[in-house]
Design goal:
This protein is an alpha+beta fold and 189 residues long. It has five helices and eight strands, in the order E-E-H-H-E-E-E-H-E-H-E-E-H. Bound molecules: coenzyme A.
Amino acid sequence: MTLPRYPDLPTLESDRLLLRKMSLEDAPDLFEYASDSQVAQYTTWTPHQSLEDSQIFLNSILEKYQTHESGDWGIIHKGDCKLIGTCGFVNWVQSHHHAEIGYALSRAYWGQGYMPESVKALVAFAFQETNLNRIEARCKLPNRSSARVMEKVGMKYEGILRQQMFIKGSFHDMKLYAILREDWENLSK
Ligand SMILES: CC(C)(COP(=O)(O)OP(=O)(O)OC[C@H]1O[C@@H](n2cnc3c(N)ncnc32)[C@H](O)[C@@H]1OP(=O)(O)O)[C@@H](O)C(=O)NCCC(=O)NCCS
């Protein structure tokens, strides 16, 4: 992956959330939701079986921080002082100024607008602080909750990528959404 145009992952803040770099101390909070099979139902990863799985995942993220690759932010619930999910850029292609966003949230916090709030902060950061021009997100067809997140942040539905991903042993059609810099600028007018 090409290196993104920011040297370090900054802490971002929204009304109810802090998005910050993760550390190994986040392993218990991460394991609490990443071991939930309902959270992992539509993700590319399988549920974590042990705290060690969460530590391995966190170590891979820490490595990305070190090499300035685009790593995930931890989503911290300010009221509960707890890591409740992750979000971040994947597939950052510097030459074409586009990237993709991925995310997951603890089931206890679903349905309260936390992920739209996180993704809005990420999109604002990207268009204000980097030279990205297009941000994409994909989800499996039955994952309506994820599609709603994309709609709520102002992404536009662009169609279905047929059998685009091979996940957990089978091919999956993916819905593609994206927001352009000009779409985002128009949102705030
Ligand atoms: C997809 C996900 C991030 C949505 O985050 P969220 O903060 O709950 O998003 P919202 O609060 O805006 O809710 C989005 C939709 O989820 C649905 N929803 C609401 N409460 C729900 C609940 N308790 N359980 C399941 N779905 C619910 C609703 O359809 C809602 O849309 P609406 O506001 O139009 O009614 C979250 O469900 C999640 O982490 N899922 C598992 C991981 C995943 O699928 N990641 C994305 C892979 S592409």
